[in-house]
Amino acid sequence: SQQGEEDPQALSIQEGENATMNCSYKTSINNLQWYRQNSGRGLVHLILIRSNEREKHSGRLRVTLDTSKKSSSLLITASRAADTASYFCATDASNYQLIWGAGTKLIIKP
Amino acid sequence: GAGVSQTPSNKVTEKGKYVELRCDPISGHTALYWYRQSLGQGPEFLIYFQGTGAADDSGLPNDRFFAVRPEGSVSTLKIQRTERGDSAVYLCASSPMGETQYFGPGTRLLVL
Lengths: 110, 112
Known about the structure:
The complex is a heterodimer. Chain A is mainly β. Helix content of chain A is 0%, strand content 56%. Chain B has strands spanning 5-7, 10-13, 19-24, 31-37, 44-50, 53-56, 65-68, 75-79, 88-95, 102-103, 107-111. Chain B is globular and about 40 Å long. The mean pLDDT of chain B is 93. The A-B interface holds A 2, 4, 31, 33, 35, 41-45, 48, 88, 90, 92, 95-103 and B 4, 31, 33, 40-45, 48, 50, 55-56, 59, 91, 93, 95, 98-106.
């Protein structure tokens, strides 16, 4: 079963704009992770935020976590064509098993 | 260093046949995971190995699915009597101590 739900399901923006994706989940977690998947390729880990953290940055990525609302957001600033991919949130409630959402398909238009 | 590799990259088989999918994790990673991903969906957990033993196989859909990791490194996912509904991308991931998982490119299985 899938725990996370990403919103929106699809997002299309112009290159240079910021992209925001949201993730909601159902149960208590140890951490929440965001992954990227390019068409035909494997999943690439982007960032991990622990349950006691509220915000984390990595390059052009900013992740927030609100455990009271069981939600997270991923912000990609100054988007590039290469950011075109599907983005998934995955929650870790058991220190090993990741539960995934269905993903947000992001398209960056040149 | 080398990442997680999976072979074959694509597998086409007929309904009822037996298939084996192989995963070579990153050297030294003790944890290994198998997931299945259907089109338009996120990965679905199948099984987790810590070393040689299956620590959690609760995600295996039925007894046609089995996975081994005899020496604590390479793992093989085995599917007996394949059905059309087994068609999916099978993903393998490894991890040194849990948390971040490093994924292979996947094996795309098509059951005709």
